[in-house]
Each structure stands twice: as C-alpha cells, then as structure tokens.
Amino acid sequence: MPDPATAPVIEFRDVSFRVADTQVLAGLTLQVSSGETLVLLGRSGSGKTTTLKLINRLVSPTSGEVRVNGMPNCEVDVTRLRRGMGYVIQDAGLFPHFTVERNIGLVPKIEGWPKEKIRARTQELLQLVGLAPEIAARYPHQLSGGQRQRVGVARALAANPEILLMDEPFAALDPLTRDDLQREFLLLQQRLHKTVVFVTHDLREALRLGSRIALMEAGKLVTVLSPEEFVKSTDPWAAAYVRAFGDGLESAAKRGTS
Amino acid sequence: MNVVRFLLHNQAQVLELTAEHLWLVGISTLFAMLIGIPLGIVIAHRPRLNKPVLAGANIIQTIPSLALFGFLLPVPWLGERSDRLAILALTLYALLPIIRNTYTGICGVDPAVLEAGRGMGLTKSQLLFQVELPLAVSVILSGVRVAVVIAVGLATIAAAIGAGGLGEFIFRGLAMVDNRVILAGAIPAAILALLADVGVGWLEKRLRAR
C-alpha cells in the first residue's frame, strides 16, 4: 500500500486519445497530488480540455489509463466517479429552469439528503463564494456573469467532493470580475485544500492560481513547472509563452504563492 | 340568424356531436403524444434515426385524409368500428408535429448545460427528466397545439366513414344543399379549434422554463 498522503490523487499513465485520425493526446503521463492546484496551460487545441475530461470520463482514453485515488477510473461506476468530483465550466452551464438554490442542491437532492440539510448547505456555500443569501431564489438569467460563475463553483462544491475540475471557469468574465474571482479562489483553496485541476490559456491566471503548471502543446505535455520556475524557464515553449505575456509576470508568480 | 335558430333547435344533437368530436380529437392526440414524444426523444439522441422517422411521419402527412379513411376501411378489426378507424387516422396525422417539435425541443437544449449535468454525475434518465424535458416542454407543447388544431379540422371528415362528430352536420348539409346545416357543424368545430389553440397555448406559457 502506498502512503495515502503522498500517493497521487489523479494519475495519467501513458494516456493517448485519438478521434478518427486526429491524435488529440499522445503519451500523457502526469500526477496530481492531494491539495494542489495543477494548472493545464496551453493554447486552443493543445489537448488540455480533453485531459480534464479524461478524469471524469466525459472522454475515454484510446490507450493508457487514468487513475483516481489509486483506482483505474474505468473500473469505478461512472456516476459515483463524477459525483466525487466537482466540475466547473466556462459560463457555468447552470440549469436555466432551476433557481440558484435548486442548481446548487441538485446533486445533494439526488443523493437523498434531507431538505433542511440541503437548504443549510446552500446557504453555507453561497456565503463561501461571496453571494448574498437572497440570491438563492433567483434564476440564472437574473444574475451577472460573475455571479453565475460563483454559483457554478458553489454547485461543484455542493456534495463536498475532494477533487475540483475547472475548465476555463473565468475566461468569459470581464477583467475586474475575473480578478475578484481569482482572488477568492485562492482564499477558498487556502481553506478547503481541494485537489484542483484547472484549465486555462491565460499565463497570468496560471501563475497566480497554480501550485504547478503543466504546459501542453499539440496533444503533448511539454513540461511541468512551478510558477517561479516557469517564468525563468529556458524551455522554448514556456519561454514563448512568457514572451507573449510580456513584463510583470514574476510578480504574478509570487502573488500566487504568497 | 337562421343558423343560430337551427343550433338552438337541435341543441341536444349539437352537444352530442360536439362531445363525439372532442372524444375523437382528445383520444387521438393522447395516443399521438404517447407515441410521438418518446419517438422524438429517441431520434434526438440517435441522429441516425431522425431522417427515416421524420420522413415517415412526413409521408403520412401527405396522404389525403379522405383517401386514408378509405384505405383503412377494409382492415379487419378496425373496419368494424368506424370510430376506431377515425382515431387511428387522426393519431397518424397528429404524429408529425409532435415528433418534430419534441426533436427540435430536445436538440435545442444548450450543450454546455448538458455537459455540466453529465459532469455532475446525472444519469441519462435524470438528465432527460430533470433537464432536457423541462427545457423542451414549451416547444413540445406548441407541437401538440398544432396537432390538436389539425385534428379538430380533420375529425369533421371522419363523419364520411360514419365515425360521428360535427362532420355529420357538414355532410348532411352538403347532401341537403342547406347552408344552415353545414354551418351548424362548421361553426362549433371552428370554436373548438380556437379553444384548443388558446387552451394549449396557455399551458405552454405556464410551463415554459425560464
């Protein structure tokens, strides 16, 4: 038995994925350990979203295996697997016909939680993501983009999963709201210590939020570096990314870890 | 107002035929929903089936109604009772709008919402009943609305094979060359169609997902 404290929570073992004759992902080997925020960074089409979806089996690998908590994820019941991880996507993907309260409480309700417990949990989560209690009765179309995304995070946390999968959750927000949400994400993470896999194409976001950054390009993992290492890296792809984003990145990297 | 006098004079028969008419329309719409909605759901989830199914429903729609009633008349069990036959024909005609709108409604659900649902661990049936159907319900009902209005009109022709309904007045009036009698069937049928349209429309609005 490996020591559970150091064993990776999520592990990719030589995972490849192809659709028809397009190699989306090739030979990916990567480990995510407990409580860290691993950022998958890369441009569109680099395979980062596919990598994320392999974890909760929205996509199944062509070869290789993905392990979650030491178990190959294809051997776990898919519903159980997914309910054990929160999933946050761009624009939140809230159910438009449900109030905020029902959106957040859906998985707990399906899991058979009593009504009072769901209500209390919803209120607790709204507070946690910085929303007023009266938001609970609103519908998604009555919220701003930032509020919707907060609800998306609250919904993902509802059943208290150990793992959070986030697919460019803040990409569609205006810069000020994004900044707020990034700051709150860091505070949240300090309190909750979830194992987070976070997909983004924004280097600043990656440096700020990630404990490690996995840089992807054309379906391959280029390198995995800490934010501090990333800004100084001599790797050509990492250096190209740093050049594209310009000055002031070192401070962004420090801000993330302070 | 000769028509009004005629209607009042034959009140009992008007009511009876209206009730028959409603029965034909109601039962056939119910059957069409029971068949059409599941079929629409299936073809929305299996794109390979949508062309053949919609084409089939389309072809049925192009058969002239009088001809369809005629074709079905010699069918053994059906031909014995003309109302069975009328209900079958009306059901067939009501299928297309219901299948098509169910298909359109389900396909119109935002893929991001579905993916979020799948990612949260909703099963296929939870996704269908909690997300897809509630979001598609107003589109489905607008298909039902079209089906009902068509059925009210078509059911008048069912009188040609003796299935009853308000068409009895219309055919009798035609035979007697008496406009009063024709209108005594046509006017209540038109009112029924309008009421059904408004009624289902109201339901559609009430159930519309936000």
What does this structure look like?
The complex is a heterodimer of chains A (258) and B (210). Chain A is α/β, with parallel strands linked by helices. Chain A folds into two domains: 1-84 and 163-172 and 192-258, Rossmann fold, CATH 3.40.50.300; 93-161, no CATH class. In chain A, 40% of the residues lie in helices and 24% in strands. Chain A has helices spanning 48-55, 78-83, 100-110, 115-128, 145-157, 175-192, 203-209, 227-232, 236-245, 249-257, and strands at 10-19, 22-32, 37-41, 63-68, 71-72, 85-89, 163-167, 195-200, 212-217, 220-225. In chain A, α6 (175-192) links the parallel β7 (163-167) and β8. In chain A, α3 (100-110) packs across α4, α3 (100-110) runs parallel beside α5 (145-157) and α4 (115-128) crosses α5 (145-157). The radius of gyration of chain A is 18 Å and the shape is globular. Chain B is mainly alpha-helical. Chain B is built from ten helices and no strands. Chain B is elongated, with a radius of gyration of 20 Å. The mean pLDDT of chain B is 91. Chains A and B meet through α2, α3 and α5 of A and α7 and α8 of B.
Summary, kept brief:
Chain A is of the alpha/beta class. Chain A has ten helices and ten strands.
Task: Give a topology summary.
The complex is a heterodimer of chains A (258) and B (210).
Chain A: E1 10-19, E2 22-32, E3 37-41, H1 48-55, E4 63-68, E5 71-72, H2 78-83, E6 85-89, H3 100-110, H4 115-128, H5 145-157, E7 163-167, H6 175-192, E8 195-200, H7 203-209, E9 212-217, E10 220-225, H8 227-232, H9 236-245, H10 249-257
Parallel strand pairs in A: 3-8, 3-9, 6-7, 7-8
Antiparallel strand pairs in A: 1-2, 1-4, 4-5, 9-10
Helix pairs in contact in A: 3-4, 3-5, 4-5, 7-10
Chain B: H1 2-9, H2 11-45, H3 47-62, H4 65-72, H5 76-80, H6 82-107, H7 111-119, H8 124-155, H9 167-176, H10 179-207
